[in-house]
Amino acid sequence: MLLHEFVSLLAQDFPLLHSTLHVCDFTRFVTLAAEVTARVQGTLSKEHETIIPFLRNALKLALPNDLCYHLWHTTRHLLSAGHVEPGLLIQLHGYQPDLPIPEHFLVCPTKHCLTCSTPHKLHIRSRIDGYLYDVDGVHTIGIVTLKCPGCSTCYWPSYYSKDKIRTYYSSRFGRNKQTFQVSCHFFMTHRLAELLREGAMLAHISNFNLANLFNRCYVDRVTTIPPLTSAPTILPDLSEVTCRDALDINTLLMKCNSAGTCLRVNTSAAPPDKRYHHAMQAVLEWIALEGSKHRAHACSACMRVLPLPSTDGTPKLGSIRAVVTDGITIGHWRCTATPAQLRELAHAEGLPAPNGPCTIPLDRMSDRFCPEHLTRLGKRCVAQPCKNDAEEGSPTCHLEVHINAYAKFKAHITSNFALTSMLNRPGSNRPSDPTVHQDWNTAKLIGLEDVQQGDEEERLHEKGREGGDAAPTRISLSRARTHNDQLCVSTCGVILARETFYHSEGVSAVRVSNFVSSVQAYDCTLTTFPYSGLSTTYVPKCDASGEDYGPFMETVFPVDPFHFRSHKETDKFCQYYTDPKLFPELRDANGWYFNASAGECANVWYGGFASLARNMHPIRFNFMMEDMIERRNDWLIRRLSKRNNITFLGDIPW
């Protein structure tokens, strides 16, 4: 049917509709009606009675209801032939060498310079082709960059750059809430980044597997992704590095958005793999200062409200908050400077001996020492605690015993190689993921020596896992790792805090009170019960050393009932202070009120990241784990809200 024939028919049959219908309303009506009809595929017996009310509501049409019915009956026979899929057609035919029309154009949200005192109007600098990763695959994009004629600041769709400092747009400056820039040619949607990050949280999926999962579904089996005309060497595959940076940027943007700040990244101060460490460290320092997002969580599964005795007859209520502390052997490489070496260096400078190991992060994960100690100890023999310098071209000194020990050490880790065993130590049911040591593109095994070194270091100190001291050894050749991470978990399962222990769980290694009191800040009106395996050692240690017990005047330290069975009855201090049966508030008519196994359940989940985090930089490791904990807590609290036996759920006011 020709257009003039359709107009004549409309004027003849429905003159009122012909005289009142706007072209834009007609176009919108036909476009949406054609799409709905194609999706319905004739399955509705009375289409007009269902579709027309939907069209009026969705399009906010001012046409009366009867005129909408007239328009439907006039156009329904044209809908099938007039239906098109614009997105698919642009994807298939838009981006061609002679007609470069990408699926999306991305531009910066401002037209005037944000840094000049007198804002200049921005000029178009260039247009770059790229790829956008989304939950439905890879899309071609046109990236429009602008430049200020006054200060030469370059403006990209997600940030502006001046003096190699990238400043990402905040919501106040019109930040794109759907997409963000990862690198020059690659963008990603926030919804895909959230999907991948949640997958990592729930299933412990490494960046290697996330990237390959996406590529298998949306790149390897798809033949319609065109190459970039202006950048033919740029491939549509999602690389592990792009995946890693995208997830980091997404999390940092979310953190900055919630804080009302802008993300700033110095692209010249660090290599690309450490580009976002400064921003990550700022987030970690904020968490260390203010506590985690769910630090004040409380619900009926971890807090019990009880009546208090009253002298004047006025009803009073008290509350008990129960938490569990437990450790999990997971961590990162650390400075290998021994206590003897630290004392030696401190004595040479006339300083007091340090209280604990060196906590300065390594510059590279393959280093033995932090930057401060590398210049002073880096040339020494690797057979610690030897004070001799290593021979030129050799990792050991001239002593034959050290040469033989190193040769035996290398032969042992080479001949006794079992990747699964190494990745799975210690613990029997922890997921092992060897892909974190493979190249994302070629699957070639990389970092094998680091895996072997870590395995040997864990074997060396395995006897000290339960809080005791490791068996003494004459020569240590492996690099050092942090000993464990301690979790403070509500008995409902919500993780309140975490802390890295550089030595064993024994209270002589760290001040446990600093960790536990970090959670107590909100508990000024509560009696708190931290179930802890450290209770039997921390309480007498605190008593004997005269350590300030003030922060814990409203706190008791029982051991959970299961573990208390194995404690010696001859230990009078333990029996008097940590026996859970001494506290009737912990029981109700059905037995123990609180679930003391919540800590072990959290450890099972937390330990699943051991393989993924093995070679991570400390800053990236801590940032990832804080993000994973926050996401898991959000997920768990939502599940708690669906339980019928949860009578209240919220945060402790402070």
What does this structure look like?
By secondary structure, the protein is α+β, with helices and mostly antiparallel strands. It folds into 4 domains: 3-84; 93-287, no CATH class; 297-330 and 483-651, no CATH class; 333-463, no CATH class. The protein has 21 helices and 22 strands. A hairpin with a 3-residue loop joins β6 and β7. α7 packs across α9. It is globular and about 105 Å long. The model is unreliable at 423-431, 458-470, 507-513, 520-528 and 532-538 (pLDDT under 50).
Q: Which segments are poorly predicted (pLDDT under 50) over 5 or more consecutive residues?
A: 423-431, 458-470, 507-513, 520-528, 532-538
Q: Identify the overall geometry.
A: globular
Helix count equals 21
Helicity range of the residues? 25-40%
Number of strands: 22
Beta fraction of the residues? 15-25%
End-to-end gap: 72 Å
Number of domains: 4
- Going by helix content, strand content and strand pairing, the class is alpha+beta
Radius of gyration: 32 Å
Sheet of most strands: 9 strands, mixed
Overall pLDDT: 82
Give a short synopsis of this structure.
By secondary structure, this protein is an alpha+beta fold. The chain is 38% helix and 16% strand.
Question: Which secondary structure elements does this structure contain, and how are they paired or packed?
Answer:
Blueprint lengths: L2 H11 L1 H6 L2 H18 L6 H13 L5 H18 L3 H8 L1 E2 L2 E2 L3 E3 L16 E12 L2 E11 L6 E2 L3 E4 L2 E4 L10 E3 L4 E4 H14 L3 H12 L21 H20 L4 E3 L10 H14 L6 E3 L3 E6 L7 E13 L4 E2 L4 H10 L22 H7 L22 H16 L3 H5 L24 H13 L19 E2 L2 E7 L4 E7 L10 H9 L6 E6 L2 H11 L15 H4 L7 H6 L9 E2 L2 E2 L5 H10 L10 H23 L8 E3 L3
Parallel strand pairs: 3-5, 4-10, 14-19
Antiparallel strand pairs: 1-2, 4-5, 5-6, 6-7, 7-8, 8-11, 9-10, 12-22, 13-14, 14-17, 15-16, 17-18, 20-21
Helix pairs in contact: 3-5, 4-5, 7-9, 7-21, 8-9, 10-21
